[in-house]
């Protein structure tokens, strides 16, 4: 069951990554994966938590971490727009590249590691 949870959060993070940064998936596949994620969330709320697989509190914490990516993505865009309006230097270009790397890749990896670690260390 832990593998199913890991696959759920990995696919959710991949869909969010696809929406925010890279257009890898086509629209039909995104809709299909989104529907499967919603169905699994409804199953978790209604059935799986009562069977003792994962309680809803931990599930919603992990789900909230997936959507924190939106805050980082738009927050970094806001910070960069403020900074670049004040400075247009050579160093600002490195700042844009560093924040872009963090926003586009590192935050997804960190959140994914947190979710996998939480799922694997949870006692079922």
Q: Which helices and strands, and how do they pair?
A:
Elements: H1 2-20, H2 27-51, H3 56-86, H4 90-121
State the distance separating the first and last CA atoms: 9 Å
Order of helices and strands: HHHH
Structural class by sheet pairing and helices: mainly alpha
**Rg over alpha carbons:** 17 Å
Largest sheet: none
Shape: elongated
Structure annotation, total helices? 4
Q: Low-confidence stretches at least 5 residues in length (pLDDT < 50)?
A: none
Mean pLDDT: 82
Proportion of residues in extended strands: under 5%
The helix fraction, in percent, is over 70%
**How many distinct beta strands?**
0
What would your notes on this structure say?
The protein has helices at 2-20, 27-51, 56-86, 90-121. The protein is mostly helical and 124 residues long. α1 packs antiparallel against α4 (90-121). The longest helix has 32 residues, at 90-121. The N and C termini lie close together (9 Å).
Question: In summary, what is this structure?
Answer:
The protein is mostly helical.
Keyword list:
mainly alpha, 124 residues, 4 helices
């Amino acid at each position: 069951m832990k593998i199913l949870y890991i696959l759920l959060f990995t696919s959710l993070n991949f869909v969010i990554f696809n929406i925010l940064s890279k257009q890898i998936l086509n629209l039909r596949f995104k809709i299909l994966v989104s529907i499967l994620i919603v169905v699994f969330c409804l199953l978790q709320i209604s059935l799986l938590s009562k069977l003792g697989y994962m309680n809803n509190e931990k599930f919603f914490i992990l789900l909230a971490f997936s959507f924190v990516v939106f805050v980082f993505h738009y927050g970094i865009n806001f910070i960069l727009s403020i900074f670049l309006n004040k400075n247009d230097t050579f160093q600002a270009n490195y700042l844009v590249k560093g924040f872009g790397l963090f926003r586009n890749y590192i935050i997804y990896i960190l959140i994914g590691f947190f979710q996998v670690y939480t799922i694997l260390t949870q006692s079922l």
